[in-house]
Design goal:
The complex is a heterodimer of chains A (247) and B (333). By secondary structure, chain A is α/β, with parallel strands linked by helices. Chain A has two domains: 162 residues, Rossmann fold; 76 residues, no CATH class. Chain A is built from nine helices and ten strands. In chain A, the strands form two sheets. Chain A has a six-stranded mixed β-sheet, sandwiched between helices. In chain A, strands 2-1-4-5 form a four-stranded antiparallel β-sheet, with helices on one face. In chain A, helix 3 crosses helix 4 and helix 3 runs parallel beside helix 5. The longest helix of chain A has 14 residues. Chain A starts with 5 loop residues before the first strand and ends with a helix. In chain B, helix 2 packs antiparallel against helix 10. By secondary structure, chain B is mainly α. Chain B has 15 helices and no strands. Chain B is globular and about 60 Å long. The chains are: A alpha/beta (247), B mainly alpha (333). Bound molecules: adenosine-5'-triphosphate and magnesium ion (MG). The site of magnesium ion has 3 residues of chain A, from helix 1.
Chain lengths: 247, 333
């Protein structure tokens, strides 16, 4: 059996005595599209933050590409081939979209320690950033600052910054939240076009989108996994209705 | 957007003015003040790396000025070292000190960082004050003779000015390059979005520490020049007031810009020297000026005046201002 891309065992995270994530275990094989469902406050984002290394788990183990990263820093994990987007947009708002993507590209390159060469002259980086923006349909806005763009454009920039790093494991936290119907379709198409060798874990509230996208669905509530299985299984499971649809 | 030719022209004028200064002001008194401005500007530029570009507000930057000054005077005037060796050891040792202080201060961020830099600075002040056998205590440490690099007589005010100006030019150039480099841009990223920077693969701590050490290095270069200029150093140099004064230069001139700290340094040094000759309570005047700047140009003199000039220029075409696209509210961070 091949090693899973992401393997989490017995994960806990307490915030002031309250468990936001409680005994979560998960195995995600290479290439899978995994969906995390669950009501507000279920602990989905906290789970992402634990995987990404924003803070350590209170208990449990996290393995990425077979490596135990539980004690590794967020930046070390990123260098293993993981990228993420944020539910609350986290961009460099005074910089141009192009600049944002360049910062993302530089993060994985040795040049990031260069204190001397002018970053503006690293033409290949800027070309690559432009190409990445084109991928998400933002090329025409490349030279605008983030502050001058709409919410939907920022959401796409979030995705562009993650894709720029050519990750093998991609964590998407509600990438469609707050988008118009048209924008949703664009982003959905974009996500469909991501090659299959990239493993994707996505948090999403919209059931239709979710079902069209996912291979396997995990439903969380109160920090715990309630149901896990194929689309059909999860939809048919009465607990899903109780937890999610009934919410 | 300004035309690049205008930029080049203003740079050339600035350089020409700086070079011609000893002829323009004629009196040695003013040439000496210019030397002090140039030295203070190096210190302010280096502090601005932390404050403006790194978002790390330090209240202990006098440490590098003072320690480099003490070391160079002690080594050359009291321990029998040559000028070059004394200078190199002073700068090297002060940079090592910055490595240590950076390591300690970066255990915290924000207010904690500020408090640690302040505390470390005051410890040094206490050491300089108490360890009289080495530092001369309250009396300070003197006896340094200015060196004669390449046969230059640095006792001549104009020659000393050019000597200091050369260091200033190199400092400005290196810092300008740093700010535009990948590392410098990363530093600005860690200032704005540290969490995102980590997720993008940046070692935020390391970037901040390297920048801290870089700033400490240029602070120590300012300290060496300070020692040569005054040929004397006292605990006052290491005191919190020196750090605060440098912070004031940076904030008054404009954080996050290259020229801001230079303008701020000129403002503070000129006020301190020229105005204090006429007004005994010059600090009050400095305070008033500072408050006025903060009230009317909260981003500092250089960005404030730039904005002001731009709005004056674009006023005849006021209708153009409306053509910027409606700016979406910056979403919550
Ligand atoms: N940094 C934090 N400090 C304290 N409590 C937190 C923190 N982050 C999350 N929590 C709490 O943990 C619980 C889970 O939050 P989380 O953001 O993970 O939920 P979510 O499933 O992503 O919800 P949503 O659908 O609203 O995004 C919530 O009760 C939240 O208040
Ligand atoms: Mg969430």
């Amino acid at each position: 059996m091949t090693t899973p891309v992401l393997e989490v065992t017995g994960l806990y995270r307490f915030f002031g005595g309250l468990p936001a994530v409680r005994d979560v275990s998960m195995r995600i094989p290479a290439g899978e599209r995994r969906l995390l469902l669950g009501p507000n406050g279920a602990g989905k984002t906290t789970f992402f933050n634990l995987i990404a290394g924003d803070f350590p788990p209170s208990q449990g183990e996290i393995r990425i590409f077979g490596q135990n990263v539980t004690r590794k820093s967020a930046n070390q994990r990123t260098h293993l081939g993981m990228a993420r987007t944020y539910q609350i947009i986290t961009l460099f708002s005074k910089n141009t979209l192009l600049h944002n993507v360049v910062i993302s590209l530089v993060g994985l390159r040795e040049i990031r320690f260069n204190p001397w060469s002018d970053l503006r002259r690293q033409t290949p980086l800027w070309d690559e950033a432009r190409a990445t923006l084109a991928l998400v349909g933002l090329e025409h806005l490349a030279d605008r600052t983030v502050a001058e763009t709409s919410y939907g454009e920022r959401r796409r920039l979030e995705i562009a910054m993650a894709l720029a790093q050519k990750p093998k494991l991609l964590l998407l936290d509600e990438p469609l939240a707050g988008l118009s119907a048209d924008e949703r379709q664009d982003v959905q198409r974009l996500l469909q076009s991501i090659p299959r060798d990239v493993t994707i874990v996505m948090i999403e509230h919209d059931m239709d989108v979710a079902l069209a996208f996912a291979d396997v669905i995990t439903v969380m509530q109160h920090g715990q996994v309630v149901v896990e299985g194929s689309r059909a299984d999860v939809v048919a499971d009465p607990r899903t209705r109780e937890v999610y649809l009934g919410h | 957007m300004r035309a690049p030719s205008f930029n080049l022209l203003s740079w050339l004028i600035a350089i020409a003015a700086l070079l011609a200064l000893p002829w323009l002001v004629t009196s040695d008194y003013y040439v000496n003040i210019a030397s002090q401005v140039v030295i203070a500007a190096i210190l302010a530029l280096s502090l601005n790396l932390l404050i403006g570009f790194g978002g790390m507000i330090s209240l202990g930057h006098a440490a590098y000025l003072g320690v480099a000054a003490y070391l160079s005077i002690y080594l050359t005037a009291h321990a029998g070292f040559g000028h070059l060796a004394g200078a190199l050891i002073a700068i090297g040792a002060t940079t090592v000190l910055a490595m240590l202080f950076g390591y300690l201060a970066l255990r915290a961020s924000g207010l904690g960082f500020l408090m640690i830099t302040l505390a470390l600075g005051q410890i040094l002040w206490g050491v300089a004050y108490r360890w009289a056998s080495l530092t001369g205590g309250d009396n300070g440490l003197g006896g340094l003779k200015r060196p004669h690099p390449f046969g230059l007589n640095l006792m001549d005010p104009a020659i000393f000015y050019y000597f200091a100006l050369a260091f200033f030019g190199i400092a400005l150039w290196c810092i300008a390059r740093f700010v535009q480099s990948a590392l410098g841009q990363s530093l600005q990223g860690t200032r704005d979005q540290p969490r995102r920077m980590r997720a993008l693969g940046y070692n935020v701590w390391l970037i901040q520490w390297l920048s801290f050490v870089f700033a400490g290095f240029w602070g120590s270069v300012a300290g060496l020049l300070y020692a040569y200029y005054h040929q004397f150093v006292s605990p006052q140099t290491l005191h919190l007031t020196t750090s605060a004064e440098t912070l004031l230069m940076v904030i008054a001139g404009g954080t996050g810009t290259l020229l801001g700290p230079v303008v701020g340094a000129a403002l503070v040094v000129i006020l301190k020297n020229v105005v204090s000759a006429y007004i005994t309570r010059w600090l009050i005047l400095l305070g008033v000026i500072f408050v006025v700047i903060v009230l009317f140009m909260p981003e500092g003199l250089v960005p404030g005046i730039t904005r002001w000039v731009r709005s004056l220029r674009s006023r005849p075409r006021a209708d153009k201002a409306a053509d910027t696209p409606s700016i979406a509210k910056d979403s919550a961070r």
